[in-house]
């Protein structure tokens, strides 16, 4: 398996990207192709013992920065690490592309170079969401801020396919984010999508409110990209804040400090369950190739785990199962 990694993508690239790439190559026994400015990448790579590892460098002279307009930057920077990486996947020289860079840029590059799977109207950015019962798979979390009901239906089909074949969830329960449990609640978008999902043949359980997502009520949660992004970012910030508050309060009391020391294994497990770095990256579903988007603040561990997600997606035939779902009559209409 060959993983194309954007060595210039992310807030702390190239150092953490290269470190994560080397870590992944060693742990998973796969080839990790580092894409970026050769001199910069080589200097970082020289810090590690890569004997026995396959971590070739592919030169890309340009970088799409976080603040740039995604589509314009992709068109203007044809030799960027994102475009070069997508081209490797397009030509079959890599099985998957992973980047912690500008997520809009990743999506634009994927659409321009790989294209959409035939029949998919909009790709969706997804994420693993930790719950009290394990995890759920949520999409869209930022690719499409404005949606139509049929987009949410397609998100559900793609989410179910990924949950079943990659995450191993049997007959996943599907819910749609709304401001009430009743099917008459929610925006016009949600109400119309709700009716489509009822007739979809999926294991649709109805509306889920914000409180229901961390409770694990649904295995696949669908929503528009604006709402999904707010949920994901709020949850991430809340988890970080709560852990910080607990740590601060523990320090105020000697007795609490002793209790915390005794409870450290449990606290470590909680921290691990809530740490975004444990989940690595999110698949961009609906494009004709495997693309994984990691958090912009990713550390080396997150990059390594994002490559792990990429590996799972390839082994689980992520793109093929979505294509099979369409041709198998999942009621996804081709865009005219």
Characterise this structure.
This protein is an alpha/beta fold and 336 residues long. It has 2 domains: 1-120 and 286-317, Isopropylmalate Dehydrogenase; 121-277, 3-Layer(aba) Sandwich (Isopropylmalate Dehydrogenase). Helix content is 46%, strand content 16%. It is built from 13 helices and 11 strands. The protein has helices spanning 15-28, 38-45, 70-76, 81-90, 103-113, 149-165, 188-198, 225-251, 254-262, 264-274, 276-279, 300-315, 318-327; strands at 2-6, 31-36, 57-59, 96-99, 124-131, 134-139, 174-177, 204-208, 220-222, 281-285, 290-294. An 11-stranded mixed beta sheet has the order 3-2-1-4-11-10-5-6-9-7-8, sandwiched between helices. Helix 2 links the parallel strand 2 (31-36) and strand 3 (57-59). Helix 4 (81-90) runs parallel beside helix 5 (103-113) and helix 6 (149-165) packs across helix 13 (318-327). The longest helix has 27 residues, at 225-251. The two termini are 36 Å apart. Mean pLDDT is 88; it is low at 329-336.
Q: Strand count, sense and closure of the main sheet?
A: 11 strands, mixed
CATH architecture of the largest domain: 3-Layer(aba) Sandwich
Query: Over the alpha carbons, how many angstroms does the gyration radius reach?
Result: 20 Å
Low-confidence stretches: 329-336
The CATH topology of the largest domain:
Isopropylmalate Dehydrogenase
Number of helices: 13
Q: What is the domain tally?
A: 2
From the spread of the alpha carbons, the general shape counts as globular
Q: What order do the helices and strands follow?
A: EHEHEHHEHEEHEHEEHHHHEEHH
- Strand count: 11
Tell me the helix content: 40-55%
> Hey, roughly how much beta strand do the residues contain?
15-25%
Distance between the termini: 36 Å
Return the structural class. alpha/beta
């Amino acid at each position: 398996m060959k993983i194309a990694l954007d060595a210039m993508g992310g807030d702390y690239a190239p150092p953490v990207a290269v470190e994560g790439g080397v870590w992944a190559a060693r742990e998973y026994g796969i080839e990790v192709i580092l894409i970026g400015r050769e001199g910069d990448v080589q200097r970082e790579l020289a810090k590690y013992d890569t004997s026995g590892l396959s971590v070739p460098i592919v030169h890309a002279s340009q970088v799409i920065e976080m603040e740039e307009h995604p589509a314009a930057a992709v068109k203007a920077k044809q030799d960027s690490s994102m475009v070069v990486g997508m081209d490797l996947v397009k030509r079959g020289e890599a099985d998957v592309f992973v980047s912690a860079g500008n997520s809009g840029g990743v999506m634009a590059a994927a659409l321009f170079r790989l294209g959409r799977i035939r029949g998919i109207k909009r790709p969706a950015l997804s994420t693993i969401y930790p719950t009290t019962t394990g995890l759920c798979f949520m999409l869209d979390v930022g690719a499409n801020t404005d949606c139509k009901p049929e987009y949410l239906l397609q998100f559900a089909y793609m989410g179910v396919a990924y949950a079943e074949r990659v995450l191993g969830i049997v007959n996943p329960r599907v819910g749609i984010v709304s401001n009430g449990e009743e099917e008459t609640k929610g925006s016009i978008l949600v109400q119309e999508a709700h009716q489509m999902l009822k007739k979809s043949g999926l294991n649709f359980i109805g509306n889920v409110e914000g409180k229901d997502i961390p409770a694990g009520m649904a295995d696949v949660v669908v929503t528009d990209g604006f709402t999904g992004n707010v949920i994901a970012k709020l949850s991430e910030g809340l988890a970080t804040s709560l852990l910080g508050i607990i740590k601060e309060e523990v320090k105020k009391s000697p007795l609490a400090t002793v209790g915390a020391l005794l409870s450290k294994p449990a606290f470590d497990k909680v921290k691990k369950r809530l740490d975004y770095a444990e989940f690595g990256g999110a698949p961009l579903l609906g494009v004709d190739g495997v693309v994984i988007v990691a958090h912009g603040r990713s550390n080396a561990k997150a990059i390594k785990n994002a490559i792990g997600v990429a590996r799972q997606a390839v082994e689980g035939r992520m793109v093929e199962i979505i294509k099979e779902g369409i041709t198998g009559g999942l009621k996804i209409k081709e865009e005219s």
